[in-house]
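note to self — DONT lose this again. spent like an hour looking for the file last time. sequence + predicted structure for the chain T wanted, 165 res
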Amino acid sequence: MVVFNGSGPFSIGQADAIQGITRSNTGFAAGVQGRNQASSGQSVGVFGTTSSTSGTGIFGTSGLLGGAIPVQAAGAGVFGNGGQSGVFGQSQSGIGVEGDSSNSTGVIGRATAPGNPNPGVIGSATSGYGVFGFSANSNGIAGQSGGGAAGCAGFASAPGGYWAG
């Protein structure tokens, strides 16, 4: 099926080609659902693409988003906006969220509100390292401070704390 957007006899009232609306909150009720029932091989349930390099392939929001699309969504393959989490990943046997880049940072976290004491990135584990860094050619973990505080600080409730050298 091919549906064209725009005006005239094929218009659905806005620039969307296909629009799905539901008022149900039972189960996994969705306005639009994509499903691929292939039992093997690489398959995709929902695919979003845009020809614009400043567009967004897939945009998701929880709650109402007023005004324009956030500028941070420009050029993103997937953009998420939510009251609790913008993007959340979970896995029982693999990586919950992964970021890779050939020419830039794989994953970045920021806490940007003035006076916000929260860290940009938190690592937590029950038995292993909360945060682990590895580099084949440089430091595994590095820190830098723009103020009078230390670039890296470590704390431990057991002997050994941290080493500064």
